[in-house]
Design goal:
The chain is α/β, with parallel strands linked by helices. It has one domain: Rossmann fold (3-Layer(aba) Sandwich). It is about 20% helix and about 25% strand. It contains five helices and 13 strands. The strands form three sheets. It has a nine-stranded mixed β-sheet, sandwiched between helices. The chain has a two-stranded antiparallel ribbon with strand order 5-10. It has a two-stranded antiparallel sheet with strand order 6-7. Helix 1 links the parallel strand 1 and strand 2. The longest helix is centred in the last third of the chain and has 14 residues. It is globular. The chain starts with a strand and ends with a helix. The model has no long low-confidence stretch (mean pLDDT about 95).
């Protein structure tokens, strides 16, 4: 079970994702953006990690999305292979048209715009923000490759670190379509699972608190939170009781375990 962890100039989370993939029993390997694209066919799945590809010039993920290797990634996605884009990886998948993927022709239908934090109908903050957040799994089990083994309604505490995670669109009816088709995978919520639309629960102003979406087929997932930074229990914040429990694991592990299970189910 071979997983390619994509690496663009400016990517900085590739090694954490590589460790996470290997820890759940997948054979991970770094795949640089300038490597022969034909070699991608040898892999069973792909992770596009976070970072600052090409220093977020123009828009986050815009330049990386135009690299020739992305054409090969589209071909692998069309074969049903799982792809998980995390933070900047999510931005790259949106800019390439792989997500939300409803047009079927690679059209860019959404944007991950600059964070706009709103409280009491006033903008209280903009730009880069780092914190632990709670996300609610809103997709059905087995609907999406990266949440294959996560129950609907389950809550995960995972950190964020981004300046452009505000999911928006000018496509009329697109958000409703994503809801109707079960493509909204994760939403920002409070510790009780409530999706309050204002900061600090909605950490970036994203439409309907959306934190992650998948394509219509369910094999491509994009999410802003960083599961690789909550993979081990020792990575958890000091107040989390699991941090010092023997045998405990971090909630982010479920994303990578789901990817493995998805590959096994396809086989």
């Amino acid at each position: 079970m071979k997983i390619a962890v994509m690496q663009f100039p400016g990517t900085n989370c590739e090694y954490e994702c590589l460790v996470s993939a290997r820890e759940v029993g997948m054979a991970g390997e770094l795949f640089r953006w300038n490597r022969p694209a034909a070699e991608m066919s040898a892999f069973d799945g792909f992770i596009v990690p976070g970072g600052w590809s090409y220093a977020d010039r123009i828009r986050a993920g815009a330049i990386a999305s135009k690299e020739p290797v992305m054409d090969a990634l589209r071909e692998e996605a069309a074969k049903g292979k799982p792809i998980i884009g995390i933070c900047n990886g999510f931005q790259i998948l949106v800019e390439s048209g792989l997500l939300p993927g409803t047009s079927g022709n690679g059209k860019v239908e959404m944007a991950l715009a600059q964070n706009v934090m709103i409280s009491n109908k006033k903008i209280v903050r903009r730009g880069y923000y780092v914190d632990w957040v709670t996300i609610r799994h809103d997709a059905s089990p087995r609907r999406c490759s990266g949440s294959f083994d996560i129950n609907k309604g389950e809550l995960l505490q995972i950190p964020i670190a981004h300046g452009e995670g505000n999911l928006v669109t000018m496509e009329k009816g697109l958000i409703q379509k994503l809801n109707d088709e079960g493509q909204v995978v994760f939403r920002y919520c409070d510790s009780s699972g409530r999706t309050i639309p204002e900061f600090p629960v909605n950490v970036n102003g994203s439409t309907e608190n959306i934190a992650g979406i998948c394509n219509p087929e369910g094999n491509v997932l994009g999410m802003m939170p960083h599961p690789e930074r909550a993979f081990f229990n020792w990575q958890l914040p000091p107040h989390d009781p699991r941090k010092h429990q023997m045998g405990a694991v971090g909630p982010g592990r479920k994303i990578f375990e789901s990817m493995k299970r998805y590959i096994e189910a396809r086989a």
